[in-house]
Every structure is written in C-alpha cells, then in structure tokens.
Design goal:
mainly alpha; two-stranded parallel ribbon; 4 strands; 61% helix; 2% strand; globular
Length: 399
C-alpha cells in the first residue's frame, strides 16, 4: 500500500509543469543547516545495527526504508527545482565535503564490525545473517558506491583514495576506471557498456554490463599506459592497487569471521553491485548520441541522461538524480549540480527508489519508459528515421 500510494502521489507531482529554477546563494549553502538533509544517509548506520541486535522482522528495515520510505517521502515533498550559485567556493561547501569524506571510515567500521558481530553472536540464524548482510549491501551499494562516485571525480588525492577504499569494500574497484575513462567519454555510444539499450531488459543488461565493463576498464588503462610506451604490467596500472585493496578486504573479513565472514562479505558486495547497475540502467536507458558519420558522435549534452528532481531521494543520493548536469559538467560537486526542466532534459516520472524497483519488471519498465524514449527521439532527433542501429548498438564505435 505504501509503494502504491507513493507511485500515485509521485505521478501526480511529476506531471506538474516544472517552473523556472530559483537560485540558492553561496551564503545559504555555507550553513550547516543547508547540508543537513544530505546527512540522512548516516541514519542507516544505527538502523542496521539495530537490525543486527534484534533480528527477525527488523532485518527488513534497511531495504524498506531505502526503497519504500524514501519513495513515499518523495511523494509527500515533491520536486526540488532550486539551483545553487555556481560561484560558490570550496570553502562554502565544507559541510558537504565532510559528509562524503566521513562516510568511508564509517562504512568500514560498520561493515567489518557487523561481520565480526554476526559470526560471534548466537541469536541470528543463518537466514538472519543472510538477511542482515543483504541490508548491508543495500547500504554499501546505495550509499557507499554513490559516495565513491562523488569522491573519484575530485582532484584531491585523499578523496580519490577514499573512493577506492569504498569500491574495494564491494569488490568493484574497476568501476573507477570504467566510469572515468569509458563511461563519461563514450556514454550514449556503442562503446559504452553502461548505456542501456532500448528494449534491453535489466536481466539482459546486467550480465552484459558485468562482463563488458571489466573488459573495457582494463583495456582503457592498458591503452593509457601504451600511449606512454608502458606495458599493462607497469606498476602504475591502477588495477594493481584495485587488486591489493580488494584482497586486503577479503583477508580482513576472513580474520574477523572465518569463511562465514568471507561469505557474508561476498553477499553484501553482490547486493551492492546489483544496486549500482540498477541505477546505471535507469540513468541512460534508451538515450543515445547522434552518429555524425565516420565514427564521430555529437558532444554529450544534458538531454543524454535522465533527470529527476525528486527532493528526498536526491537527499539520500546526494543529487545523483541530477544526472543530466553531472554528465554535462562531471567535475561539479554534488551540491552545485543543476536541475534541468523538461525543455532541456528528459525527466523520470519518479525518483530512483521507484524506478530501480520498476526496472526489475521488464514489462512494467517498458510500459513506463519506452513511450518516453520515443517522445525524446521525436523531440531531439526527428531527422533519424531508422533507429535499428542505435537500438542494437551496431553503429560504428567512436574514434
């Protein structure tokens, strides 16, 4: 009933005409009160510990909160159409920067603390432990990978290292190379594994993207080294750092909980990766860049990503749903990401909590999204008559 009510209210709100965005001053952004809503994610930490201590029905709390409560709150609070002043300085964003910086040690202590706790307590059954670490994976995927995404885009070496540590905790370190060296360069083209194709259901997308992203990320780093006349085996290849960090995480899980600890660690990592790729699937489904001929494609624009202005889920996901602007200006910190209206970018009817659930049901997903993709094509590319090559990603690979 909660999910149905959230869908209904959210649909009504999403059909409202988006007004002109208002500006948030840098003075306002610099206050800790302005950043406070984005700290909601930290409430999931005591919640997962409560679940671990109580067991039973409480093990459902984290998935229910992240998927359903935030969807319901989106329906209540509606859209956020305000945009931050782009002249805002790094100093003004202190409370936003400390948010993503602190998450890495908090997640580290939570993940490995729970591995020790779950393998040394007697009140959790095997099923209870599995349920607990499913919830942990929801946190490390929904929050942890998302925060690593913010950190990997920054210039600070410390922030990038924290991003690497977060990704190592879910055994998906190559996501950094894939995202920075492949996805942002080739989004909306046949060379980007992460761009979900029109009519490609998530259950076909998922195994494809797992395989192709690993291959493309390694190839991207290998090619980068080749341009410096270095072999892939050179120690500057970040994959050596990825493997070392991931190996260290698995060893630590074993030291704390034995093989059961390793199993629980692998479970949360699998759930986290699934959460990430669900979001990747939603973000670009059916949106392609125009092939200009001879392997050349138009520049990335805001209309090549789905935008969502839903307020509360953007608090949880630190404005990840303002994805149109993220691809247009990848180096902007999350509080400065701009919202786009219907005139400039395609809009999702709901926030990610609802859309990722819908993506698990291909018939429902196509019913919601395919008409929107066709409308998008008619609006931006009326000159393209035959979309078969775009649908199958058989256009020439970009040069």
């Amino acid at each position: 009933m909660i999910a149905y009510w959230a869908l209904t209210v959210g649909l009504i709100r999403s059909r409202q005409t988006l007004a002109e965005n208002t500006m948030i001053s840098s003075d306002h952004l610099s206050r800790w009160q302005s950043a406070l809503p984005f700290w909601l994610s930290f409430l999931l930490v005591p919640l997962i510990w409560f679940s671990a201590s109580q067991g039973g029905w409480s093990l459902l709390l984290v998935p229910l909160v992240t998927w359903y409560l935030f969807a319901a709150l989106d329906g209540v609070f509606g859209l956020n159409l305000e945009n931050a002043d782009l002249e805002t300085t790094e100093d003004d964003l202190f409370w936003y920067r400390i948010l993503t910086t602190l998450w890495a040690p908090v997640q580290f202590v939570t993940l490995f603390g729970l591995i020790w706790y779950a393998t040394h307590t007697g009140h959790l059954s095997t099923g209870g432990k599995l349920g607990l670490f499913f919830g942990v994976g929801v946190i490390t995927g929904t929050i942890g990978i998302n925060y690593s995404h913010e950190l990997m885009h920054q210039k600070s070496r410390t922030e990038r290292w924290l991003g690497d540590i977060l990704l190592a905790m879910v055994l998906y370190s190559h996501f950094r190379s894939e995202h920075l060296r492949v996805h942002h360069l080739y989004v909306g083209t046949p060379r980007d594994p992460v761009t979900a194709r029109y009519n490609e259901g998530f259950h076909r997308f998922y195994p494809r993207v797992l395989r192709e992203s690993l291959i493309s990320s390694f190839r991207a780093e290998k090619d980068m080294l080749a341009r410096k006349d270095l072999p892939w085996s050179d120690l500057s290849n970040p994959f050596f750092r990825y493997w070392a960090l991931q190996g260290g995480m698995v060893i630590l899980a074993f030291l704390l909980g034995g093989w059961a600890g390793v199993g629980l660690f692998l479970l949360q990592a699998g759930v986290a990766i699934w959460q990430l790729e669900l979001v990747n699937y939603v973000e670009h489904y059916g949106l392609t860049r125009k092939h200009l001929g001879n392997g050349k494609y138009e520049h990335v624009m805001p209309h090549h990503s789905w935008n969502s202005a839903h307020k509360v889920s953007n608090w949880l996901l630190i404005n990840l749903q303002r994805h149109s602007d993220h691809h247009y200006k990848p180096n902007r910190r999350f509080p400065l990401l701009q919202n786009y209206t219907h005139a400039d970018a395609p809009q999702l009817p709901f926030g990610y909590p609802v859309m990722t659930v819908a993506a698990m049901f291909p018939t429902l997903w196509r019913r919601i999204m395919n008409p929107r993709v066709r409308k998008w094509r008619a609006a931006y590319y009326p000159e393209i008559i035959d979309w078969k090559a775009y649908n199958k990603a058989t256009n020439p690979a970009p040069k």
